[in-house]
Amino acid sequence: MSYTVIVFVKQVPDTQNITGDAMKPDGTVNRAALPAIFNPEDLNALELALQLKDRFGAKVVVGTMGPPNATAVLRASLYRGADECILLTDRAFAGADTLATSYALSCCAKKYGKFDLILCGRQAIDGDTAQVGPQLAEKLAIPQLAYVEDVIDLSKDKVSVKRTIEGGYEVLEAPTPVLMTVIEGNEPRPMNATRIMKYKRARTRSELAKDHADANYTDAESLVEEADNLVAKNLLIHEWSAEDVGADKGRVGLPGSPTKVKKIQSVILTGGDAKSVEPTEAGISDLIHELIEDHTLG
Amino acid sequence: MTKKIGNVWVFIEQEGGKIADVSLELVCKGRELANELGVKTEAVLLGDKLDGCVDTLYSYGCDTVFLAEDKRLEPFTVLPFAKVIMSLILEHKPNILMFGATYKGRELAPRVASEKLAGLTADCTELRIDDFDDKINKQSYTDKLMQIRPAFGGNIIATIVNTWDDPQMVTVREGVMKMDEPNSSLKGKVVKIDVQLDNSDTVIKVIERIRQDKSINLGAAQVIVSGGYGVGSKDNFKLIYDLAEALSGDVGASRAAVDAGWINHDHQVGQTGVTVRPKLYIACGISGSIQHCAGMDDSQKIIAINADPDAPILSIAHYSIVGDLNEVIPKMIAAFKAKA
Asked: What is the pTM of this model?
């Protein structure tokens, strides 16, 4: 018995390194201005999926919704052990909030077909909302297991997990198919050198066409041949549009997003009138005196 | 009022019949929003054997408590909770629905929002009523809920508006809304819910459940002494405990100190920890990342002790002490003992 595990991952701006023009005037993110990384908890989700592959036998399918260059996280997944990748990309998806995103991903999962588990990181570091996982589960009408640390057991029709709760943990059991959101905890495996050599040539059809254009080589027939060649070697990354996955255009992107950004402000830490206190006995004694006088202490 | 709008709802989180602080904070905030809109404040309380909670909710300002009691609602699992809340929403059409941004709230709210096709904003730190001009779609809205939250790792603050049908849904971080004093003379009414669940709602089984209450509740602390990476070692954290004890305060920590294993996560202050607003916050060896400052910059007085004169924490402090905390802290303890 081999299981099918879909892992949904996200390429995110590295929010630890924010620069000036990170936001567009309409309040959405200018991703081009920021370094892009594999969302950290999605790496934990991928690692958990690969552990399931090692333990129980599973096909690990990694999907992402994003711009064409989000294939970087898909190749990074192949380098670690993923079997198949899907890029869900379309201008129509731009500006999606969590509801529109979960709808698009649900269409992607349905288009893929039968699966036993869907794994996602608990949340992405650009929004920190933790909403897409539970919303995707609802859209697919399957149960959800949030904050999963580890899978205890997996069988033909059910799974048991250990998951974090406020002040402790639970062991939960649920029927498959089920969606899990995974929290930081396991140690994502490094990329494998042999797999890098093989999968660095993995391409979407658009990337392949671009390679050809860059090489100033426009023979359409050889492009088709090369694509067939990639398919044969399992090196073709699926590239699906909104239409490909049968998504209703009114439910994706900005039109499908009930929440609108009214205003964005940068956070500037200010205090201004900090009183400098000398680290001497006299300085500190005066400070303590002042705090007792104004009833902050005592 | 020109059109009838729904009431303000708060999902009440409870554990063993004890209401979570964040839920009471939200009732107080809900009361304020409801007064401004001229509507009622209503609580949604789910679990089993919860009679004791109802009077508490009245005393914080709830006009109505929707009470769903069923043994299948204890302990919390997401599917039956979502089902009950969803049917209540469809029946009563609230204008606003708030959840604490806790483990339970952040798992439950999106499931409900997805089914209702309602907008949901996570981890709000501020809420207020205002009008909204959607210039892109050329639509104007009156009396909408402004949902204000940090994003991008705390580097920006975004104001979000839900432009679709009600309810306008939010989760709100613990400790950021002020809890008012309860008034036991306030009364409301309880509406008992006939809980309708089928087998598909109870497919998730809780096999084992281990939990304990937090070892400390920093949200209520008046004096907090916090240590960061600059404390240097687990042993040296004793200095932080000593100062806290001398000042009758509690011990907090930055994420760096928690990640280093010097102190447990219950003590962590900041975006991924608790939000605090004590009378006095003493930051010892904490550089002052945006994520940390977001959890403590509403403190009435902030003292920062740091060896680095360029540490960002010094710019939000009311008193800055540039020096070695190993020397400064013992001097503070001695000075306080001499004065008090």
From this structure: 0.87
